[in-house]
Design brief:
Layout lengths: L6 H17 L6 H9 L9 E5 L4 E5 L4 H11 L5 E8 L4 E8 L2 H10 L8 E4 L5 H10 L4 E5 L2 H13 L5 E4 L12 E10 L4 H6 E12 L5 E8 L5 E4 L17 E2 L12 E5 L11 H7 L7 E6 L5 E6 L5 E5 L8 E6 L4 H14 L8 E5 L4 E5 L7 E4 L4 H6 L1
Parallel strand pairs: 3-12, 5-6, 5-8, 6-7, 8-9
Antiparallel strand pairs: 1-2, 3-4, 9-10, 10-11, 11-18, 13-17, 14-15, 15-16, 16-17, 18-19, 19-20
Helix pairs in contact: 1-2, 2-5, 8-9
The structure holds S-adenosylmethionine.
Length: about 400
């Protein structure tokens, strides 16, 4: 049962959160500040999951006494992402987060980057807890806000929480990749789950001059947010944001398992060699792993695990059975041991991307951009017409695989 929290308790905490966001440079706009002050975030997160670091499992946390209530409120009114739903990952018996209340600093940065003005209609992809829909309803009026989530239970819960606070935005249980044509066109689209490509429906449902904030992420889990403008024609174009944010991936279904199982590895004998490229370069929020994805075949599977010899390895697998495993610790010669098999030399693709990345002088996120049309996606550096360009394979191979 949800814990009741008096206004006299949560309002000062929401005010403190707004101060923290301002002091950290995340919150500038007084209208969004008002929304942070007015919306009780705890109503949207009655329980959450925390990772039990020892066992690596997710444990459900529900406040049930004064101490746990205070710990819960401290977290809720802080710039922290709280995981609110989990599912089995790729049928492997390992649990992965599938829904959350995104950290308010990222959410507010995104809402400010959305550049809304009064009267605009906004579509959110990924309702989750409904907290962000509440902030937008407060700022723009609930009649202007539509939000979709793939999971009907999340929509039911979000609708109830929002209504309890007097907000009745349009909520729908649907695959956000289809947009929400019957309620469009939209001035703004904000996606809080990651995709590999911008669905054509979003390009079509965005008004000329409209803005879409999307998180593009590929099979290595590397990506970032982009602010894309629509012109008079159905083309979206814009740059990656200069700061990094990350979201969970779009799901094709709201099932107990997220993602397809990894492709089977070829039974061909493997070969070995050394590589000077640290597999750790594929981790984290830099642009390089994003670029590497453009040099690998669609439908890749990427994992970090401990192999049979107790060594931490980065593994890549492709749908044609090709695979490679690279030790994450260097050997005595400073190189990383690489084992690989199959028709596609996957690590060579990563090395080619690395050489290109170095040749380009390791540009930052905002130096890259995307042009998306209904038939083609193109990543570019510097200038959309004259700079180096890379095609983004579409349609989204991950989404296809999951359907
Ligand atoms: C990071 S959470 C959203 C956070 C949310 N905006 C909030 O304020 O709490 C991402 C959400 O995207 C949803 N999602 C995943 N795949 C989706 C899809 N195909 N269509 C719509 N929503 C999807 C997930 O169910 C999850 O609730």
């Amino acid at each position: 049962m949800a814990v009741m929290v008096a206004e006299s308790r949560w309002r000062p905490m929401a005010a403190h959160l707004a101060e923290v966001l301002q002091a950290d440079g995340d919150l500038h706009d007084p209208a969004w500040r008002e929304a942070v002050l007015a919306v009780p975030r705890h109503e949207f997160i009655p329980r959450y999951y925390r990772q039990d670091n020892g066992a690596g499992r997710w444990v459900l946390v529900e406040p049930n006494d004064e101490d746990s209530t205070q710990r819960w409120l401290d977290l809720v009114y802080s710039p922290t992402t709280l995981i609110t739903d989990i599912a089995d990952y790729a049928g492997r018996g390992v649990q992965a987060p599938v829904s959350s209340s995104t950290k308010p600093d990222l959410m507010i940065r995104m809402l400010e980057a959305l550049e809304v003005t009064d009267g605009m209609r906004v579509l959110e992809i990924g309702t989750g807890t409904g907290y962000n829909a509440a902030l937008m309803s407060h700022r723009l009026g609930d009649k202007q806000v539509c939000s979709v989530d793939i999971d009907p239970q999340l929509i039911t819960d979000a609708r109830q929480r929002l209504a309890g606070l007097g907000y009745t935005p349009t909520l729908a249980a649907a695959d956000g990749a289809a947009g929400l044509a019957e309620h469009g066109p939209f001035d703004r689209i904000i996606a809080t789950c990651a995709l590999w490509a911008v669905p054509t429906t979003w390009i079509e449902q965005l008004r000329p001059g409209g803005l879409a904030l999307v998180h593009i992420e590929g099979p290595l889990g590397a990506g970032n947010l982009l602010a894309l403008r629509r012109g008079d024609t159905p083309v979206l174009q814009g740059r990656f944001l200069p700061w990094w944010g990350c979201f969970m991936r779009r799901r094709a279904t709201a099932g107990p398992t997220v993602g397809p199982p990894p492709p089977a590895r070829t039974t061909e004998a493997s070969t070995t060699r050394d590589t000077t490229l640290d597999p750790g370069e594929l981790d984290g929020g830099k642009y390089f792993p994003f670029l590497a994805q453009l040099y690998l075949p669609p439908g890749m599977f990427h994992s970090i695990s401990i192999d049979d010899n107790d060594v931490a390895v980065t593994e890549l697998r492709a749908p044609d059975g090709s695979w490679c495993e690279t030790n994450r610790e260097p050997g005595a010669n400073g190189c990383f041991a690489l084992r690989q098999a199959g028709p596609t030399p996957l690590w060579a693709g990563v090395e080619t991307a690395w050489d290109r990345w170095r040749e380009l002088r390791e540009p930052a996120w905002h130096e890259f951009g995307l042009t998306a049309t209904p038939t083609e996606h193109r990543i570019w550096l510097g200038d959309p017409q004259d700079g180096p360009r890379w095609p983004l394979p579409t349609p989204d191979p991950l989404a296809e695989a999951r359907s």
